[in-house]
Amino acid sequence: MANGGGGGSSSGGGGGGGSGLRMSSNIHANHLSLDASSSSSSSSSSSSSSSSSSVHEPKMDALIIPVTMEVPCDSRGQRMWWAFLASSMVTFFGGLFIILLWRTLKYLWTVCCHCGGKTKEAQKINNGSSQADGTLKPVDEKEEAVAAEVGWMTSVKDWAGVMISAQTLTGRVLVVLVFALSIGALVIYFIDSSNPIESCQNFYKDFTLQIDMAFNVFFLLYFGLRFIAANDKLWFWLEVNSVVDFFTVPPVFVSVYLNRSWLGLRFLRALRLIQFSEILQFLNILKTSNSIKLVNLLSIFISTWLTAAGFIHLVENSGDPWENFQNNQALTYWECVYLLMVTMSTVGYGDVYAKTTLGRLFMVFFILGGLAMFASYVPEIIELIGNRKKYGGSYSAVSGRKHIVVCGHITLESVSNFLKDFLHKDRDDVNVEIVFLHNISPNLELEALFKRHFTQVEFYQGSVLNPHDLARVKIESADACLILANKYCADPDAEDASNIMRVISIKNYHPKIRIITQMLQYHNKAHLLNIPSWNWKEGDDAICLAELKLGFIAQSCLAQGLSTMLANLFSMRSFIKIEEDTWQKYYLEGVSNEMYTEYLSSAFVGLSFPTVCELCFVKLKLLMIAIEYKSANRESRILINPGNHLKIQEGTLGFFIASDAKEVKRAFFYCKACHDDITDPKRIKKCGCKRLEDEQPSTLSPKKKQRNGGMRNSPNSSPKLMRHDPLLIPGNDQIDNMDSNVKKYDSTGMFHWCAPKEIEKVILTRSEAAMTVLSGHVVVCIFGDVSSALIGLRNLVMPLRASNFHYHELKHIVFVGSIEYLKREWETLHNFPKVSILPGTPLSRADLRAVNINLCDMCVILSANQNNIDDTSLQDKECILASLNIKSMQFDDSIGVLQANSQGFTPPGMDRSSPDNSPVHGMLRQPSITTGVNIPIITELVNDTNVQFLDQDDDDDPDTELYLTQPFACGTAFAVSVLDSLMSATYFNDNILTLIRTLVTGGATPELEALIAEENALRGGYSTPQTLANRDRCRVAQLALLDGPFADLGDGGCYGDLFCKALKTYNMLCFGIYRLRDAHLSTPSQCTKRYVITNPPYEFELVPTDLIFCLMQFDHNAGQSRASLSHSSHSSQSSSKKSSSVHSIPSTANRQNRPKSRESRDKQKYVQEERL
């Protein structure tokens, strides 16, 4: 039985090698049963012995462990697995015993010495710790030695802790190296798993064993470092990594000593994979929580899977010890991996299964934990992989191609509007890639939009507040960063604060990046000035939507329809050809015009601005409205229609209105020698003159060439002041003779100013307003309450109080709305003259009649409550109701006797030869408006689709774009969405925004914005020659052709002739027509609605009822003599002249008997103040 037991042991060990050994084992089992039956007969012992010997002969061949002649190994094939296992067990339990014994002795020592320590301490207290003379006793030498020993041990412990800590470079290298070597040892195990479980090997000739030995020596040294650095040795001894070392390191040394190898528990090295996520974090590869969690789950799952497969591989190839290892089966390691996977997943095909009792017992317990792990880990892993950011990559810059980053409010509407304008075909080839960065993944519609523009658009998910995301989109190499704002948010201040934080984050990451951001509120622009790296001279711009929106509306109060024309100029619109002779045909021809910049040819150098402007219009078919002028100190300024006193310099930048960028190139290519006799402007192209070859590199700096569709100024020549140089202005002696001690203008001289007034002094009751005949004024209907967001009414009033108007030309402004809301706005309005407030509601017809709505020059309808409603179709309900309410009003057909306005021409329809109507008599008889339809109104809308409700008689499709609708074409509706185009227009040409802001704000400059940021109000200033010179700047006006100097051209004349005559005679620059909608029809009852025609061609035929948009020079004599040529302030529907003064019903004679009541005295004082 001893031999049988020993043979069984050897058979189990040898049978793990392959099929041949497994067959020998089976034969041995059969012979063993025969041996048992034959040995039952005790009488035939010799034959039994002989039979047993013959049976065991082949079994011994199977028991022998594979051996070579060079390897000194056990020739009897004795298995030595217990020696390998014993080395690990002795190391583990021996070390555990020593640690526990040390702790026990230390505890007993502490307990035993506790009483003695107290006794010694008491003796020291009684005897005193100092000598009688008060000096300290010398410290005991033994205590010094103990302290030195403790210090030395602490130093070694600290050194070991630093060596294995991942906080230092050495520690990180060591940790990573240990992990890499552990993976290497695991790979060696995978290689050796194809060999028998136990085999003879020569250490000096087995290369894998040598490598494994080197690895384990390193692991042993690292184990020592960890042991020294550990604070709690017991817990360290029980750690997973320590257990792995116990069962993998000692068997290697045993292998060298016995010259044999046992596969054993080397599979435990797979548990090191659990630290994979830590290693990646040390290398700064994993940074996000999701990625760390994903790697953790994967490493735990895989390490558990491989470790369990190693155990199954060991027991199945070895067999059960109590069965003498005879129930083994040959399974490769990877078959065991497969077995564990189908077991965890509860599939269990049955093709591979455990036969040993140990294997089956292990599978019983493993399936409980494995199934739980599989059911919890795998779905979470799949979820993490599925939830990985689809747009989480990094942008790869393309050589020779610029890119911009667009962030902020990224929605389908905002992105589609931006791309439509930015990638418009009229911009030539836009070689710019657009990178969108947003923290929310796009929806299906937005994703489809990105795919349609995949060649030029990329989207990445992230936040500009995260520097890592800024690095992903290569913000440091981007040409600019554009920040879009949510125009429909409920809290504009919070939206502006978010965008300002985005600017701070981007500027903090890369201070030199150019940023163009949208702002909703004007007063929030001041916060951008607090950012140190914010520099408008370098191209940084803030597009304030409230400032521009109200500025556009204010200009419509001076020249109705101008808001539509300006909005179309900086928006890219494709030309839509219509064959029918309708108003849409002429309107759309003008819509296709945009604003561009181009450098002027040297052929224009030395010529005056009107001469160059006429040459461009007549010969080049281009309309130049402004230039960038460099003064003697090389400071750049944008001058709008400067007049004939200014001469064109070399390298002057011109601002043109044209249909595409290619046409504007004619101004740059024009050569008098080559193109003087060419009549077709399309033939004006780059000629072969050497002048043109040398001109471009000398005139254009590389910075100015960097964008298509327009060029930027260099940082040192950014336009600062949008007014004329005082030294270039002729006739400064004609400036109004004003008292320099009286503050009539602000400190910059750009706006009319008055001393701050209390709001109670400008409030009118309904009866007071009815007693005061208001005419030619502006009525502002405002919806708002105490909780409404401020819309910034100062931006509406400032253009109407520009200093290039004389005081008597200012239109009186009457606000009709909630007094609680207007009190909140009044702080920014109390420095402007001719402003009144009627508390009430714009829906009250009594309030509207009290302010003479039928005699106003313009009625503006605004609402501060538009963004507080979730339903977009109801956002404009108040404005629409107010507009329809006014249009449905009826007025008496009375004759209003108004003071004649001699600023312009005799109104259309009036006989100039009639004594009653002659301006000489000072009185003008005009028919008043009898229906509200003819009242000039401009309504602000938030939702573009709501424009269909403004005009009940139009036939616009609800899906029609805003710029194609009749209310917008007529200038009676304005939506903030049209300002979206300014983002791309400003990027391609930052001078465009400066020009637009100059036109619509009345002359606001960065210096003025900085001043307002300091005091939140305009500061009054004394009139000096410098400030008065600032009044000399152009303003927009409308001229009637029915009468006056241009009456001969109004009936069938050409627009080009009018353009040239106005430019030569009055330095007036015409740029559009405001025409009656049915002017082409010969019907007796024509509609009073008008529409805008932008930059008509030279041969365009005029009609008498046309109103001409023009840029007029400041008239110095208008303040003294009111007979000079000026703008026509009129109602566009009736083409009638209205005075902008305020009249009182009592006559002048009756006014001599002044009322003595306080109310009457205050009223009389108010009327006299308004007549100043």
Automatic annotation (TrEMBL):
Keyword Transmembrane helix attributed: yes
Ranges for domain RCK N-terminal: 401-543, 775-919
Chief place of localization: membrane
Any one of the GO BP annotations: vasodilation
Skewed-composition ranges (Low complexity): 37-54, 1122-1147
Membrane association type: Multi-pass membrane protein
Signal sequence, start to end: none
InterPro entries on file: Ion_trans_dom, K_chnl_BK_asu, K_chnl_Slo-like, NAD(P)-bd_dom_sf, RCK_N, Slowpoke-like_C
Enzymatic reactions: K(+)(in) = K(+)(out)
Molecular function via GO: large conductance calcium-activated potassium channel activity; metal ion binding; voltage-gated potassium channel activity
Regions of compositional bias (Basic and acidic residues) in chain numbering: 1156-1172
Pfam family, one: Slo-like_RCK
Regions crossing the membrane: 80-102, 173-191, 211-229, 294-315, 330-349, 361-379
UniProt biased composition (Gly residues): 1-20
Stored PANTHER family: CALCIUM-ACTIVATED POTASSIUM CHANNEL ALPHA CHAIN, CALCIUM-ACTIVATED POTASSIUM CHANNEL SUBUNIT ALPHA-1
UniProt family annotation: Belongs to the potassium channel family. Calcium-activated (TC 1.A.1.3) subfamily. KCa1.1/KCNMA1 sub-subfamily.
Quaternary data: Homotetramer; which constitutes the calcium-activated potassium channel. Interacts with beta subunits KCNMB1, KCNMB2, KCNMB3 and KCNMB4. Interacts with gamma subunits LRRC26, LRRC38, LRRC52 and LRRC55. Beta and gamma subunits are accessory, and modulate its activity. Interacts with RAB11B.
Entry protein name: Calcium-activated potassium channel subunit alpha-1
Source species of the chain: Sciurus vulgaris
